[in-house]
Amino acid sequence: MFGFGDMIDSSSWNYARNSFKTTGVQTAEIMLKSKTDMTTLPGFFDIHEDVSNALNTDKPVVARESTIITHGMPFPDNVEMAKTAEAIIRAHGAGPATIAVLDSRLKIGLTEEELVRLAKTREAMKISRADMAFAISWGKTAVTTVAATMIAARMSGIRAFATGALAACMPGPKRASMFRLI
User: Fold this and answer.
1) pLDDT score for 36
2) How many structural domains comprise the chain?
3) For all residues of the chain together, what is the average pLDDT?
4) Cβ contacts of 50-57, under 8 Å, gap ≥ 24
5) 8 A C-beta contact, residue 103 and residue 114
6) Domain housing 150
7) CATH code of the domain in which 155 resides
8) 91 in helix, strand or coil?
9) pLDDT tens, 47-97?
Protein backbone atom coordinates (compact mmCIF):
# COMPACT_ATOMS: atom_id res chain seq x y z
CA MET A 1 0.00 0.00 0.00
CA PHE A 2 1.33 3.44 -0.87
CA GLY A 3 1.03 6.55 1.24
CA PHE A 4 -0.78 9.20 -0.76
CA GLY A 5 -2.00 11.09 2.29
CA ASP A 6 0.50 13.90 2.05
CA MET A 7 -0.27 14.39 -1.66
CA ILE A 8 -3.83 15.71 -1.17
CA ASP A 9 -5.34 18.13 1.30
CA SER A 10 -5.91 16.74 4.78
CA SER A 11 -9.71 17.03 4.79
CA SER A 12 -10.01 14.95 1.58
CA TRP A 13 -7.56 12.39 2.92
CA ASN A 14 -9.37 12.11 6.26
CA TYR A 15 -12.72 11.68 4.48
CA ALA A 16 -11.32 8.93 2.24
CA ARG A 17 -9.55 7.18 5.11
CA ASN A 18 -12.61 7.31 7.39
CA SER A 19 -14.93 6.14 4.60
CA PHE A 20 -12.65 3.20 3.96
CA LYS A 21 -12.52 2.36 7.66
CA THR A 22 -16.28 2.30 7.97
CA THR A 23 -17.28 0.72 4.64
CA GLY A 24 -14.34 -1.13 3.18
CA VAL A 25 -12.61 -2.99 5.98
CA GLN A 26 -14.32 -6.33 5.40
CA THR A 27 -13.87 -6.00 1.64
CA ALA A 28 -10.20 -5.16 2.07
CA GLU A 29 -9.68 -8.09 4.42
CA ILE A 30 -11.31 -10.46 1.92
CA MET A 31 -9.20 -9.05 -0.94
CA LEU A 32 -5.98 -9.34 1.03
CA LYS A 33 -6.73 -12.92 2.05
CA SER A 34 -7.83 -14.06 -1.41
CA LYS A 35 -5.34 -15.38 -3.92
CA THR A 36 -5.73 -15.49 -7.66
CA ASP A 37 -5.62 -18.97 -9.14
CA MET A 38 -3.15 -18.45 -11.99
CA THR A 39 -4.59 -21.45 -13.84
CA THR A 40 -7.94 -19.68 -14.24
CA LEU A 41 -6.57 -16.57 -15.94
CA PRO A 42 -7.46 -16.06 -19.61
CA GLY A 43 -5.04 -17.59 -22.09
CA PHE A 44 -3.83 -14.21 -23.33
CA PHE A 45 -2.23 -13.30 -19.97
CA ASP A 46 1.57 -13.46 -19.69
CA ILE A 47 2.70 -13.01 -16.11
CA HIS A 48 6.42 -12.32 -15.80
CA GLU A 49 8.22 -15.03 -13.83
CA ASP A 50 9.32 -12.60 -11.09
CA VAL A 51 5.75 -11.33 -10.66
CA SER A 52 4.34 -14.86 -10.59
CA ASN A 53 6.91 -15.99 -8.01
CA ALA A 54 6.19 -12.97 -5.80
CA LEU A 55 2.43 -13.50 -5.97
CA ASN A 56 2.76 -17.21 -5.23
CA THR A 57 4.90 -16.52 -2.15
CA ASP A 58 2.77 -13.62 -0.83
CA LYS A 59 5.43 -10.99 -1.53
CA PRO A 60 4.23 -7.48 -2.43
CA VAL A 61 3.82 -6.57 -6.09
CA VAL A 62 3.06 -3.09 -7.41
CA ALA A 63 1.18 -2.71 -10.71
CA ARG A 64 2.36 0.12 -12.95
CA GLU A 65 0.50 1.69 -15.84
CA SER A 66 2.52 1.98 -19.03
CA THR A 67 1.03 5.03 -20.76
CA ILE A 68 3.77 7.32 -19.48
CA ILE A 69 6.37 5.18 -21.27
CA THR A 70 5.04 5.85 -24.78
CA HIS A 71 2.91 8.94 -24.35
CA GLY A 72 4.80 10.90 -21.72
CA MET A 73 8.49 11.03 -22.64
CA PRO A 74 10.79 10.54 -25.61
CA PHE A 75 13.14 7.59 -25.99
CA PRO A 76 15.55 6.93 -24.17
CA ASP A 77 14.32 9.11 -21.27
CA ASN A 78 11.20 6.94 -21.04
CA VAL A 79 13.26 3.78 -20.50
CA GLU A 80 15.35 5.42 -17.80
CA MET A 81 12.23 6.73 -16.04
CA ALA A 82 10.59 3.28 -16.13
CA LYS A 83 13.73 1.55 -14.84
CA THR A 84 14.10 4.14 -12.08
CA ALA A 85 10.48 3.69 -10.97
CA GLU A 86 10.95 -0.10 -10.92
CA ALA A 87 14.19 0.29 -8.92
CA ILE A 88 12.41 2.47 -6.34
CA ILE A 89 9.68 -0.15 -5.96
CA ARG A 90 12.31 -2.89 -5.51
CA ALA A 91 14.22 -0.76 -2.99
CA HIS A 92 11.08 -0.71 -0.86
CA GLY A 93 10.78 -4.51 -0.88
CA ALA A 94 8.14 -4.96 -3.57
CA GLY A 95 8.24 -6.23 -7.11
CA PRO A 96 7.20 -4.04 -10.05
CA ALA A 97 4.67 -5.24 -12.62
CA THR A 98 4.46 -2.83 -15.55
CA ILE A 99 1.36 -3.75 -17.57
CA ALA A 100 1.08 -3.48 -21.38
CA VAL A 101 -0.14 -5.36 -24.46
CA LEU A 102 2.44 -6.83 -26.84
CA ASP A 103 1.75 -9.35 -29.64
CA SER A 104 -1.83 -10.12 -28.53
CA ARG A 105 -0.62 -10.82 -24.98
CA LEU A 106 -1.54 -8.88 -21.86
CA LYS A 107 1.82 -8.59 -20.14
CA ILE A 108 1.85 -8.43 -16.36
CA GLY A 109 5.45 -7.36 -15.83
CA LEU A 110 7.87 -6.71 -18.67
CA THR A 111 11.31 -8.06 -19.48
CA GLU A 112 13.97 -5.45 -20.17
CA GLU A 113 13.74 -6.26 -23.88
CA GLU A 114 9.96 -5.78 -23.84
CA LEU A 115 10.32 -2.49 -21.98
CA VAL A 116 12.82 -1.14 -24.52
CA ARG A 117 10.68 -2.37 -27.43
CA LEU A 118 7.64 -0.63 -25.95
CA ALA A 119 9.62 2.55 -25.29
CA LYS A 120 10.80 2.71 -28.91
CA THR A 121 7.39 2.19 -30.52
CA ARG A 122 5.60 5.14 -32.05
CA GLU A 123 2.33 3.36 -32.83
CA ALA A 124 1.29 2.15 -29.38
CA MET A 125 -2.40 2.44 -28.62
CA LYS A 126 -3.36 4.02 -25.32
CA ILE A 127 -6.01 1.66 -23.98
CA SER A 128 -8.59 1.85 -21.26
CA ARG A 129 -11.15 -0.80 -20.32
CA ALA A 130 -13.17 -0.23 -23.51
CA ASP A 131 -10.28 -1.02 -25.89
CA MET A 132 -8.49 -3.84 -24.06
CA ALA A 133 -10.19 -6.63 -25.99
CA PHE A 134 -9.63 -4.90 -29.34
CA ALA A 135 -5.91 -4.38 -28.72
CA ILE A 136 -5.40 -7.96 -27.57
CA SER A 137 -7.48 -9.60 -30.31
CA TRP A 138 -5.98 -7.52 -33.14
CA GLY A 139 -2.37 -7.95 -32.02
CA LYS A 140 -1.79 -4.29 -31.29
CA THR A 141 0.98 -2.84 -29.19
CA ALA A 142 -0.78 -0.97 -26.42
CA VAL A 143 -0.04 0.81 -23.20
CA THR A 144 -2.47 0.83 -20.31
CA THR A 145 -4.20 3.73 -18.64
CA VAL A 146 -4.97 3.66 -14.94
CA ALA A 147 -8.34 1.95 -15.58
CA ALA A 148 -6.92 -0.82 -17.78
CA THR A 149 -4.03 -1.36 -15.38
CA MET A 150 -6.39 -1.69 -12.41
CA ILE A 151 -8.45 -4.31 -14.26
CA ALA A 152 -5.40 -6.35 -15.26
CA ALA A 153 -3.87 -6.02 -11.79
CA ARG A 154 -7.05 -7.15 -10.05
CA MET A 155 -7.44 -10.13 -12.38
CA SER A 156 -3.86 -11.23 -11.70
CA GLY A 157 -4.04 -10.76 -7.93
CA ILE A 158 -1.97 -7.58 -7.59
CA ARG A 159 -3.33 -5.34 -4.85
CA ALA A 160 -1.04 -2.29 -5.00
CA PHE A 161 -0.77 0.29 -7.74
CA ALA A 162 1.47 3.18 -8.78
CA THR A 163 1.03 5.65 -11.60
CA GLY A 164 3.15 8.42 -13.03
CA ALA A 165 0.11 10.60 -13.57
CA LEU A 166 -0.36 11.29 -9.88
CA ALA A 167 3.27 12.32 -9.44
CA ALA A 168 3.37 14.38 -12.61
CA CYS A 169 0.81 16.85 -11.28
CA MET A 170 2.49 17.40 -7.94
CA PRO A 171 5.14 20.07 -7.44
CA GLY A 172 8.49 19.56 -5.72
CA PRO A 173 9.29 16.92 -3.11
CA LYS A 174 5.73 15.61 -2.85
CA ARG A 175 6.29 13.95 -6.24
CA ALA A 176 8.58 11.30 -4.74
CA SER A 177 6.23 10.53 -1.85
CA MET A 178 4.02 8.34 -4.05
CA PHE A 179 6.72 5.68 -3.85
CA ARG A 180 6.88 5.59 -0.07
CA LEU A 181 5.60 2.29 1.25
CA ILE A 182 3.59 2.28 4.44
Assistant:
1) 60
2) 1
3) 77
4) 50/95, 50/109, 51/95, 51/97, 51/108, 51/109, 51/156, 51/158, 54/94, 54/95, 55/156, 55/157, 55/158
5) no
6) 5-179
7) 3.40.1790.10
8) helix
9) 999 999 999 999 999 999 999 899 888 999 999 999 999 999 999 999 999
